[in-house]
Amino acid sequence: MTKADKYLVSDIENILQNGYKDIDPRPRYEDGTPAHTISVNHVMRKYDLSKGEFPICTLRKQAWKTGIREIFTIYKNPTNNLKEMEEMGVTWWTPWDIGDGTIGQRYGATVKRYDLIDNLIKDIKEDPYGRRKIMSLWQETDLRETPGLAPCAFLTIWNVRGEYLDMCMIQRSGDMLTASGAGGINEIQYAALLMMIARATGYEPGVFTHFVANEQIYDRHVDNAHVLMERAKASASDKEPTLVLKCEKGVDIKTITIDDFEMRDYEPMEPQLKFELGI
Q: Do residues 44 and 54 lie in contact, with contact meaning Cβ atoms separated by under 8 Å?
């Protein structure tokens, strides 16, 4: 198993053994049933990209290209417009349409309003050892301006360490098996973002740390959790998949495309698992 797979199995066991069930949850399944979760608080995972520890799960197939395309809609070509997101290959945000064809003043709209990416890159280049390199999607003005899903992965903190750029990502809440878990879409996305910013500023991607304040398994995902643990027992490979970004140092982040990324040695287990979402 990969490092991400081992983290995932350990975290599933922790939630099933020590988690607590929520009361009167906000999310609902498509049939209207309350989407209850079993949760634990304060989960942390750490990967050193410079040592080939890319966070991608092999116990089920991850749509890594679509995940990176979504991070493009937030940070590279920031938008909250569903049509524009779909044109960039991201189609899973439709249930969060606030009624005007957008997801509200959230995510990409916040990045664009405060010019977060350009300011971050400028700061890294001009003051590499400064300790104020923070991008926050949690802007109270934005959250009050429109309805919409509050950002889940909302804060990144960046530090230069010699030739390396390190980053930690803070997530307030995470659906472990569909997005936030070890080697899931959120970790793939933000590790890729670290690679992009490192390449744009002339550094090598270093340590990526992911902190989830509350991580959950939905009640209708428990069976799949057991399937993943059984797959882990059958996994015989310790080969670590690697994501490669084929761009020169100093690249303009806005010119990076999905074709500049190549995933090597990724052989996920089949068949794919299906998860009913709580909306």
A: no
| Residue 184 Cα distances to 58, 108, 190, 279, angstroms | 10, 21, 10, 19
Judged against a pLDDT cut of 80, whether residue 237 lies above it is answered with no
CB 246 within 8 A of CB 262: yes
Report yes or no: 213 and 169 within 8 Å, Cβ to Cβ. no
What dotted CATH number matches 3-264? 3.30.572.10
pLDDT digits (tens, 9 = 90+) for 115-133: 999 999 999 999 999 999 9
Residue 274 has pLDDT above 90, yes or no: yes
CA distance 261 to 263: 7
pTM of the model: 0.96
User: Do 38 and 219 form a contact (C-beta atoms < 8 A)?
Assistant: yes
Measure Cα distances from 69 to 21, 66, 192, 257 in Å: 33, 5, 10, 9
Q: For the chain, what are the domain ranges?
A: 3-264
Mean pLDDT over 210-217 rounds to 98
Q: Which residues contact 108 (CB under 8 A, 6 or more apart)?
A: 73, 74, 75, 77, 78, 79, 80
Cα separation of 271 and 117, whole Å? 38
Contacts of 118 (CB under 8 A, 6+ apart): none
pLDDT of 236 strictly over 80: no
Which positions are annotated as active-site residues? 152
Contact 248, 260 (CB under 8 A): no
Give the tens place of pLDDT for each residue, 47-72: 999 999 999 999 999 999 999 999 99
